Amino acid sequence: MKILLDECITKQLKNYLEEFVVYTVRELKLSGIKNGQLLTFCCDNSFDVLLTIDKSMAYQQNLDKYPITIVVLNCSTSKIEQLVEFLPSFKLQIEGLEKNKAYIIDK
Length: 107
Known about the structure:
There is one protein chain. By secondary structure, the chain is an alpha/beta fold. It has one domain (2-105). The chain has helices at residues 35-44, 57-60, 80-83, 87-93, and strands spanning 2-5, 21-24, 49-52, 69-73, 101-105. Strands 2-1-3-4-5 form a five-stranded parallel sheet, with no helix packed on it. Strand 3 (49-52), helix 2 (57-60) and strand 4 (69-73) form a beta-alpha-beta unit. The chain is globular, with a radius of gyration of 12 Å.
């Protein structure tokens, strides 16, 4: 499973997702690009999941165009202490998530 962490999520979260292939927007030098361009990049580079806390992303894009899963952690901050609380739920659900859809993950 190949995951891209959106720039609104701290890069520290990558350390808690070691069972996956994880990249950050910053390390791929994609900071500041528009969401549509980011989704296109994900699709062109075989990412399975875009992980974000940007709750509006799922509604701003036509997801039928992008064969990727958007996962929104329902967290109000990007602090690592709070983000890790969502990971057990995320990891339980990840295998059942479908492409071209967005999901909001709660604790």
